[in-house]
Amino acid sequence: MTVQVTGIVLAGGKSTRMNFNKALLPCGPVTMLEKIVDELRKSCTQVIIVAGKNEYDFRDCLVIPDIYPDGGPLGGIYAGLRASRTEYNFCMACDMPRFKGELVKILALRAPGYQVVVPQVRGCYEPLLALYHQSCLSVIEEVLKAGQRKITAIYPYLKVNAVTHEEIAEKLGESEYFLNINTPEDWESYRGSSF
C-alpha cells in the first residue's frame, strides 16, 4: 500500500540560542532549509514550510504562517496539518542537516492503522521527524488551547507506532539522521564534518 505524504518543515522558531535564522545556514552550495526541502521532495507529494513570517521564497513550496504564534513546534505541526491535502504528513524541524528523505518512506510503510509514526532513539521519541495523520488535528487543538506546547503531550490520546533506531538503521545504515543544530558550537562541529 502506497501512502501519499506531505512534507512539513517547521521554520518559524526564534533560534534564540543561535542568534540568527538556522534555516538559512549554508550547507555546501545551498542553505540548510533548501537541503531539507530537496530531501523531502524525494518522498513527498508536496512540501509546506511553516514560518513565523513569510521570509522564504521556495519553488513549488507552500509557505504559511503559524495559526498559534506562541504554540511552539506543536503549533507549527497544527498549522501544517491544516494546510495539507494528504492524510499523512511528515513533520520536521528546519535544523536537521543530515536528514534523508528515505526516512519518510520507511515510516510511511508503518503508517496504516496509526495516527503517529515516530522514530525512537535510545528510548526517546523524535517527534520532529515523524508522521502525523490529519486526525491528530482535534487533539492538537485541545492540547494547545489547554496551554501545552510539548509535542509528546498529544501522544497518550493517539494511536502511536514507535519505530526504533535499529529498525531504521537496517534500511538506511548507521548515521546521524537525528542530528540537529541548536547552538553555535553544534554548527561549528557540523561544519567540521562533511556535508
UniProtKB/TrEMBL annotation:
One Gene Ontology cellular component annotation held by this UniProt entry: cytoplasm
Record key words, sorted: Cytoplasm, GTP-binding, Magnesium, Metal-binding, Molybdenum cofactor biosynthesis, Nucleotide-binding, Transferase
UniProt-listed Pfam families: NTP_transf_3
One GO-annotated biological process of the protein: bis(molybdopterin guanine dinucleotide)molybdenum biosynthetic process
Major location (coarse): cytoplasm
Needed co-factor(s): Mg(2+)
Enzyme Commission number(s) of this protein: 2.7.7.77
Span of domain MobA-like NTP transferase: 7-153
Catalytic activity: Mo-molybdopterin + GTP + H(+) = Mo-molybdopterin guanine dinucleotide + diphosphate
GO terms assigned for molecular function: GTP binding; metal ion binding; molybdenum cofactor guanylyltransferase activity
Subcellular locations according to the entry: Cytoplasm
Residues binding GTP: L10, A11, G12, K22, D66, D95
Family per similarity comment: Belongs to the MobA family.
Function: Transfers a GMP moiety from GTP to Mo-molybdopterin (Mo-MPT) cofactor (Moco or molybdenum cofactor) to form Mo-molybdopterin guanine dinucleotide (Mo-MGD) cofactor.
Domains (record comment): The N-terminal domain determines nucleotide recognition and specific binding, while the C-terminal domain determines the specific binding to the target protein.
UniProt name for this protein: Probable molybdenum cofactor guanylyltransferase
Gene name as annotated: mobA
